[in-house]
Amino acid sequence: MLFAVQMTVNLPPDLDADLRAATLTAEKEYAQELQQSGEWLHLWRCAGQYANLSVFEVTGNDRLNDILWGLPLFPYMDITVTPLARHPSAIR
Ligand SMILES: O=C(O)C[C@H]1C=CC(=O)O1
Known about the structure:
By secondary structure, this protein is α+β, with helices and mostly antiparallel strands. The protein has a domain at about 1-15 and about 40-80: 2-Layer Sandwich (Alpha-Beta Plaits). It contains two helices and four strands, in the order βαββαβ. Strands 2-3-1-4 form a four-stranded antiparallel beta sheet. It is elongated, with a radius of gyration of 14 Å. The mean pLDDT is about 100. The site of [(2S)-5-oxo-2,5-dihydrofuran-2-yl]acetic acid has 8 residues, from strand 1 and helix 1.
């Protein structure tokens, strides 16, 4: 199943600098592992925002939920999930 996910990051300005750095490092590793495994198909920066638009291909809602809850930045994110269906005019 395909899902579009928008993640907006709201890191508290007073977050401890070491915790911030460790969380960002862990987030990058986590995101890259899921891209390498093929579940995180697209990861795009929303221009001008601390946000991304991602596409996941996963077995279902529960797997996506597990992935999102596992994001190291999850406590600092607003997340919107849109299930995707094939568009009748799509050619690929
Ligand atoms: O920067 C972001 O958009 C948040 C997050 C998502 C993947 C990643 O590496 O960081």
